């Protein structure tokens, strides 16, 4: 059997871990780049979470773990390691990333997302001198340029608008990937997944950014009110959220994303940029409704700016907004993502994108809320109950959290 070897960065992360498990099941040998101490142990723990016992024997036999950091030239790999990799790697899958978005993290984000991508392209180019190597870059659908309200499967021109530092860095990295293709004929593919959520059947995920940060912010407020108001909490949040109810959010399950990437990687294809987006996006208003149902609360109003002009924000609303700063712009407008190139390669009959309905979101929300519940339980009540309610109406309660929130972020 012709066993391919994939070099995967970001293998301990959300996309990288599901991708690594998927590739192993497809018969690949995977060499995973993991930074920091105890790389093999950390990766094994994540893969067990993703795949349970199923991966057991495969793990030992076909998974290699190598310590390294994308911020360093040659990823900080020894000469011996580089030489060995140059003789075995057929595919490079670059999933490592920094999700920071605030301008104060500019240097760090550039080092991870832009320079880190260049380091990997340089290595792939060198390996390609001795054997054919394909480079797969995991970007984001939000790096796409917009024309007539449609996000295109094209490279964004220099100076194209970006909502934040993260999006800008992904556009820059994509330009580098395309430059290596054009200058050095490196075979490259850019995947642009939309907002990724848990597995279709289990709701499972391993890191909780994007949509999950909004869910966490709501759950945190509910928890605080439960602790502080006790029986007086009527489960009405009285929370206004700056959002456009009819905005469509493009959610895609992780299992769809990894299978779509793999299918594209094996198909003969035109073009190098592929949108892994849902042809039936979900409305923001429905997403909040599903979250409220799961948390057994009411009282989230999606409002425009004029609402806050008419009545200033409560401290409760300010806290929510602080916790969802990164996600806030995405609640106001969402483009339609063109998937023509992707669907020419992987027709919907072969791999349909699951519908994001109430049942699907129940699984996704439940999986994460169970994890949050365990984290809440681990926090001594005093750190939460030190928050002093200043009034009996939830909208007026003072909810300054202890430093760091005390909860996972
Ligand atoms: N999650 C989404 O909703 C979403 C949506 C669209 C596109 N994407 C894209 O998908 C890709 C993967 O995202 P993700 O959600 O899987 O991210 P993630 O869960 O935050 O994982 C990031 C991975 O990168 C690793 N990493 C970070 N800095 C590194 C460094 N300096 N050297 C080596 N490894 C490093 C992390 O390792 P540690 O374990 O050590 O932290 C982790 O394994 C990214 O390109 C992202 O832009 C994600």
In short:
The protein has 14 helices and 16 strands. It has 409 residues and is of the alpha/beta class.
* Order of neighbouring strands in the sheet with most strands: 3-2-1-4-5-8-13
Structural class: alpha/beta
Gap from first CA to last CA:
44 Å
Oligomer: single chain
The unreliable regions are 383-409
Instruction: Work out the helix count.
Output: 14
Q: Please count the beta strands (DSSP E, at least 2 residues each).
A: 16
Q: Give the H and E element order.
A: EHEHHEHEHEEEHEEHEEEHEEHEHHEHHH
Cα gyration radius (Å):
22 Å
Overall mean pLDDT: 90
Residues in β-strands, percent: 15-25%
> What would CATH call the architecture of the largest domain?
3-Layer(aba) Sandwich
Please give the CATH class of the largest domain. Alpha Beta
């Amino acid at each position: 059997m012709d066993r391919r070897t994939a070099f995967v960065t970001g293998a301990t992360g959300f996309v990288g871990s599901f991708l690594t498990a998927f590739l192993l099941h497809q018969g690949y040998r995977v060499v995973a780049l993991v930074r920091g101490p105890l790389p093999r142990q950390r990766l094994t723990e994540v893969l067990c979470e993703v795949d349970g016992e199923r991966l057991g024997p495969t793990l030992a036999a076909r998974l290699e773990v190598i310590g390294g950091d994308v911020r360093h030239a040659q990823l900080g790999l020894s000469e011996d390691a580089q030489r060995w990799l140059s003789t075995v790697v057929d595919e490079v899958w670059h999933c490592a990333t920094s999700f920071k978005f605030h301008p104060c993290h500019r240097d760090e984000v550039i080092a991870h997302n832009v320079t880190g991508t260049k380091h990997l392209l340089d290595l792939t180019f060198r390996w390609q001198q001795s054997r054919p190597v394909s480079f797969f870059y995991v970007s984001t659908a939000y790096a796409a340029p917009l024309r007539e309200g449609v996000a295109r499967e094209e490279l964004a021109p220099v100076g194209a608008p970006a909502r934040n530092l993260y999006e800008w860095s992904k556009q820059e990295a994509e330009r580098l990937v395309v430059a290596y293709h054009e200058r050095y004929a490196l075979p490259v593919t850019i995947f642009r997944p939309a907002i990724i959520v848990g597995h279709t059947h289990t709701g499972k995920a391993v890191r909780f950014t994007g949509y999950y940060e909004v869910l966490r912010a709501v759950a945190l407020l509910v928890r605080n009110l439960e602790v502080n108001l006790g029986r007086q909490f009527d489960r009405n949040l009285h929370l206004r959220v700056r959002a456009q109810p009819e905005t469509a959010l493009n959610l895609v399950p992780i299992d769809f994303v990894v299978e779509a990437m793999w299918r594209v990687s094996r198909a003969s294809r035109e073009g190098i940029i592929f949108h892994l987006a849902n042809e039936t996006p979900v409305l923001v208003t429905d997403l909040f409704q599903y979250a409220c149902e799961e948390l057994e609360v009411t009282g989230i109003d999606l409002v425009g700016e004029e609402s806050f002009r008419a009545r200033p924000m409560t401290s409760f609303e300010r806290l929510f907004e602080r916790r969802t700063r990164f996600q806030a712009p995405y609640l106001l407008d969402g483009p339609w993502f063109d998937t023509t190139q992707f669907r020419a390669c992987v027709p919907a009959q072969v791999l349909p994108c699951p519908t994001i309905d109430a049942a699907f979101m129940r699984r996704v929300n439940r999986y994460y809320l169970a994890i949050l519940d365990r984290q809440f339980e681990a926090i001594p009540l005093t750190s939460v109950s030190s928050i002093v309610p200043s009034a009996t109406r939830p909208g007026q309660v003072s909810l300054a959290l202890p430093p760091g929130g005390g909860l996972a972020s």
